[in-house]
Design brief:
This protein is an alpha+beta fold. The chain contains 15 helices and 8 strands. The strands form 3 sheets. It has a 4-stranded antiparallel β-sheet. The chain has a two-stranded antiparallel sheet with strand order 1-2. The protein is elongated, with a radius of gyration of 24 Å.
């Protein structure tokens, strides 16, 4: 997944003063959240490739059609939209039928960067130019690296910045180490998804003001979060974090859930499974069914952070990461990248986090009911207990717990305390 709008302590004061909005992928007003009036709507500031939909034509469409199994005729029509929806569903992202941010994210990097650099025409695309700079990642960065004849890894590092400055100076442009329309024009990359043509701005969504308000709120919450250590003493969360960190360096593979490779939700599911908690498989389901939500500024290590194309609609969640404290997150980013720890970024970040460990109540014993018992039964079944997962701690669950305790040199009390729980993995 692309990394934009990283949170740094240098931005905290400015954010608190309302001077910056971190990571906004929507049009940004100079002040407040009121949408601009007809005729003065700003061009959206983006750090990724343009959204492509029905009516778009050109080589970029042809490349994407080949990927999704549509007739590669370079014309984005209804059949392409249908094929794209099927492909999006298979990738576990919202089936929007347009090539949006989440779609660019899950494409193989080689395909995404190639399509993002190819010509487009027609009418079905957003009008914008990618503004990328230090620490951004993703297909737009890969396009820039290729144009600058740099190694293509989709990571905007110091070497990329140095090469960009040199190219801007050679073209007689201001050396800013940040791309703009003039930079892409000098690199002969206009009329491509990385810098789309057009003099008019796209229509703002009906909920523009609400979306912008949430994104501004997220920027403030993220800045406030940096003032807290964000650590935890919860041993179950610490065990999940420890397992997750051991996966650092392993590759992102869509559908991967370990032990050799991971996708974003697979990493979080496996990490918590190692700590005795069973999470849903898909990121959006993890948001809905992994525990209570808390405000972003209260995040602690082990909490799950979510990113959505529409920050008002959790059904559009396309990425999940684990907070590990100190402004850092652990995640499996995107195709072509490895599991790692990075600074928190705010593009598409939701203002709430999920705390899986908050739903677990210990000790558990005969007569208990609810989510914690369901978690216990699921873990015992993974070890061959063959229990009915009904959330009720009855005689069969008690017997399974005692058998487990005996087999692992624990007092066979039938009561599940922390020591017994941590042995379940």
């Amino acid at each position: 997944m692309r990394r934009h709008g990283r949170v740094t302590r240098a931005l905290v004061a400015a954010t608190a003063a309302g001077l910056v909005i971190l990571g906004s992928a929507l049009p940004a007003a100079a002040a407040g959240t009121d949408p601009p009036t007809q005729g003065d709507a700003p061009t959206p500031t983006v750090t990724t490739c343009a959204t492509l939909g029905a009516g778009t034509t050109g080589a970029a469409v042809k490349t994407i059609q080949a990927l999704i199994g549509a007739d590669a005729d370079g014309d984005f029509g209804p059949q392409t939209a249908t094929a794209l929806k099927a492909w999006q569903t298979a990738q576990g992202i919202p089936a929007t039928g347009v090539v949006d941010n989440a779609t660019w994210t899950v494409m193989p990097l080689a395909t995404a960067s190639r399509a993002c650099a190819q010509k487009i025409g027609g009418t079905g695309f957003t009008v914008s130019c990618a503004v990328v700079s230090q620490d951004d990642t993703g297909p737009a960065v890969a396009v820039l690296e290729a144009a600058l004849e740099q190694p293509v890894d989709a990571e905007f590092d110091a070497a990329t910045g140095k090469a960009l400055v040199a190219a801007q100076q050679a073209a007689g442009l201001k050396a800013s180490a940040t791309t703009n329309r003039k930079t892409w024009k000098a690199l002969k990359l206009t009329r491509t998804p990385v810098c789309t043509p057009g003099s008019t701005t796209p229509a703002l969504p009906a909920d523009w003001a609400q979306q912008q308000a949430v994104r501004k709120q997220v920027a403030q919450l993220a800045a406030d979060l940096l003032q807290q250590p964000g650590t935890t003493t919860n041993k179950i969360a610490l065990k999940a974090i420890k397992y997750g960190k051991k996966q650092i360096g392993k590759p992102y593979v869509y559908g991967g859930a370990g032990p050799k490779s991971y996708d974003c939700s697979g990493l979080q599911m496996r990490s918590y499974l190692h700590a005795g908690l069973t999470l849903p498989r898909v990121a959006a389901d993890q948001y809905a069914g992994s525990g209570p939500t808390l405000p972003l500024d209260q995040a602690q290590a082990g909490d799950l952070l979510f990113f959505a194309s529409d920050v008002l609609a959790p059904t559009t969640i396309y990425h999940v990461a684990m907070y590990v404290g100190g402004g850092d997150v652990l995640d499996a980013p995107h195709t072509g990248a490895n599991v790692g720890i990075k600074q928190l970024w705010t593009t598409d970040l939701l203002p709430t986090v999920v705390r899986p460990v908050a739903g677990l109540t210990l000790p558990l014993q005969a007569g208990a009911t609810g989510w914690s018992v369901t978690q216990l039964q699921q873990m015992l079944n993974r070890h061959g207990a063959a229990l009915t997962v009904d959330g009720g701690f009855g005689p069969s669950t008690t017997a399974a717990v005692q058998a487990w305790q005996q087999a692992h040199d624990l007092a066979a009390t039938g009561v599940v305390r922390l020591k017994t729980w941590l042995s379940l993995r």
